[in-house]
Design brief:
It is a single chain. By secondary structure, the chain is an alpha/beta fold. Helix content is 47%, strand content 11%. The chain has 22 helices and 15 strands. A hairpin with a 4-residue loop joins strand 8 (137-138) and strand 9. The model has no long low-confidence stretch (mean pLDDT 96). It comes from Paracoccus fontiphilus. Residues 286-472 form the Mannitol dehydrogenase C-terminal domain.
């Protein structure tokens, strides 16, 4: 029978399952992490668990936190397991499982509880995994969205905030007023210059209600940039059954992930940091080139295969990669148009990195899904595809494939695949996107008129022409004809 996961059951786990070799009761919290989802537990929490297992950094244990109603359900699941999680690495050469114990608490999903946890002087880092769309960026200007209702609320009610940024401000204010050192704020989201974006959101929100606090934060609080990477599918009954049947553990919130992890961070932690370099993290002076490499080649690659694969009816990413046309389309777009926008990194081969990405996408054990890659396109396209397109236009480079990718997304936004099957809405702006996509049948530029997504690119004549031409092929001849046309250079 499967063992129900909790602290008292650790000694009863099957021998093949790894588990903490350290005394969890001796851990001391040093980090509050907001957004205890699958990626965080497969990545940051896993790194810390391995560090603690070496007998290092045990005053950097995690306290979980959440700001959304759905976070309460995760808290309940993890509380019943004494904050333990089973992480299964989906290595095609053989799966392996480890129970990790680096989280020691998860505060109630209540703003005042989160603020109190952050305000504790023992906490030296507040880290975030809140998704790419969670930073209140105005797509039209790429600046801070001061008009967003959540921001307006927090600016008017700084002692009763709704957003994580309002909670960070309230906690920093308490620490400043108490004479305590501020914590470092560390974004772990897939954003270009995520630390700078996070700093802008925090300080601009502070500026709206307390300019003196904003000035103090600019002078005293660090926001290091970081690059994070580990493909981590959503957990479903499939994954829970795998953990139970294969490893003999009943876990209400297991995580499955690929066996690859990467974490590159700017070494800017004034109040100290865990020695994560001992477990494979890399600390550098400037993370921007590594960050851009990952965002454009990996995340941009995900976007490139997502929409044509969905239109062709592929469900799993590895099945899409087994489709010769999809695999050829990915490599061609990457090598012709995405990689050329990147600056060289000493010691890094972009060809080798692309080969690694292709092999990771093709891993059948991961079970990553095309619907997951298609999620939230109105937030992801402006971060993973459109900046590459803007750089290519600025440098007068080829944009045919990037325009084709946007054309695939437009056709996907009609919400039917090529066989006529309905595609469920998966974007907060799904209805508006569908309206623009359907209107593009009569006027291709109607899709680009969505300025919230496209900003100034919407009126770029060269992009308009390429997009209209590539969209016509998709609409009239289909995905495969569009890919063949691009591959042949026509």
């Amino acid at each position: 029978m499967a063992v129900s996961l909790n602290a008292s059951a650790l000694h009863d786990l099957p021998d093949a399952v790894g588990r903490p070799g350290y005394d969890r009761a001796a851990l001391r919290p040093g980090i509050v992490h907001v957004g205890v989802g699958n990626f965080h537990r497969a990545h940051m929490a896993y790194y810390l668990d391995r560090l603690f297992d070496m007998g290092e950094g045990q005053d950097w244990a995690l306290i979980g936190a959440g700001v959304r109603p759905g976070d309460a359900a995760m808290r309940d699941r993890l509380a019943a397991q004494d904050w333990l999680t089973t992480v299964v690495e989906l290595d095609p050469n053989g799966l392996n499982a480890r129970v990790i114990g680096s989280m020691v608490d998860f505060v109630p999903v209540d703003p005042q509880a989160v603020i109190a946890a952050m305000a504790d002087p023992a906490i030296r880092i507040v880290s975030l995994t809140i998704t790419e769309g969670g930073y209140y960026v105005d797509a039209k200007t790429d600046g801070f969205d001061a008009a967003h209702p959540d921001i307006a609320h927090d600016a008017a009610n700084p002692d009763a905030p709704k957003t994580v940024f309002g909670m960070i401000l309230a906690a920093l204010r308490r620490r400043r007023d108490a004479g305590a050192e501020p914590f470092t704020v560390m974004s772990c989201d897939n954003l270009p210059e995520n630390g700078h974006v996070c700093e802008r959101t925090v300080t601009e929100l502070a500026q709206l209600s307390d300019p003196a606090l904003a000035q103090w934060i600019r002078a005293n609080v660090a926001f290091p940039n970081s690059m994070v990477d580990c493909i981590t599918p959503a957990t479903s009954d499939r994954e829970r059954a795998l953990v139970s049947d294969r490893f003999g553990i009943t876990d209400a919130a297991p995580v499955v992930c690929e066996p690859f992890r990467q974490w590159v961070l700017e070494d800017n932690f004034p109040q100290g940091r865990p020695p994560l370099e001992k477990v494979g993290a890399e600390f550098v002076e400037d993370v921007s080139k590594h960050e851009l490499m990952k965002l454009r080649i990996l995340n941009g690659g995900h976007a490139a295969i997502a929409y044509p694969s969905a239109l062709l009816g592929h469900h799993f990413v590895h099945d899409a990669m087994a489709d010769p046309q999809i695999a050829a389309w990915l490599r061609a777009l990457e090598t012709r148009e995405i990689v050329p926008t990147l600056q060289p990194i000493p010691g890094v081969s972009y060809d080798d990195y692309l080969d690694l990405i292709v092999s990771r996408f093709a891993n059948p054990e991961v079970g990553d899904t095309i619907p997951r890659l298609c999620l939230d396109g109105s937030n992801r396209q402006p971060k993973f595809i459109l900046p590459t397109l803007a750089d290519a236009l600025k440098d007068d480079r080829d944009i045919e494939g990037l325009a084709q990718e946007v054309a695939f997304w437009c056709r996907y936004c009609e919400r039917t695949d090529e066989a006529g099957n309905e595609i469920a809405p998966n974007d907060d702006n799904s209805d508006a996107l569908r309206d623009h996509a359907i209107a593009s049948r009569a006027d291709p530029l109607a899709f680009l008129a969505n300025e919230t997504v496209f900003g100034p690119l919407a009126t770029n004549p060269r992009f308009q022409e390429a997009f209209a031409r590539r969209l016509k092929i998709v609409q009239e001849q289909g995905v495969r004809a569009a890919i063949d046309s691009y591959l042949s250079g026509s």
